[in-house]
Amino acid sequence: MSQKVSFSTKLDQNTFSKGNLAILYSKPTILVTTFVFGAYFLFAVVTAITGNTQNLLLAIPALIFGGIMPYVISKNARKAFSHNPRLAENIVYTFENNKLVLKGESFNNEVTLDKVFKVSKTKNYILVWHSRFVANIIPLKNTSPADIVTLRSILNDSKVKNNL
After folding, report:
1. Closest CA relative to residue 84, chosen from 157, 13, 4
2. Quick one: which of 16, 23, 75, 127 has the fewest CB in 10 Å?
């Protein structure tokens, strides 16, 4: 039985930026590191309030990693979006039994599903990972629960790692 599901997306700059942050924070090491730096920053601020200011200088790296890094990533994503018109195209992702077809206004790409690293679902996105570091963003608002069930079935049949 041939299964097929399609998702049509048109990313805007804000969605692309938030999607890049979702890609970054989907990595457990980034989450743990951010938590550790955030906890250390809070510890340094609390000890500074109580009169011990020697830890305050060491809180600067924690502030940079926890606060400035997400801002820089978001800003760079916005810049990349504005410089690459393909990112703003309407893109249709079609998952079939053994392939993924990505069709935009200026491109058409077909990939066998065994070349897809994994597919993961976050709170707001489906991420189609082509490697450990590169993913396509499909906003969940462009999907339905029935589409997710069909996609899970296609991925499981093709033995693609997923958390749908």
Report:
1. 13
2. 75
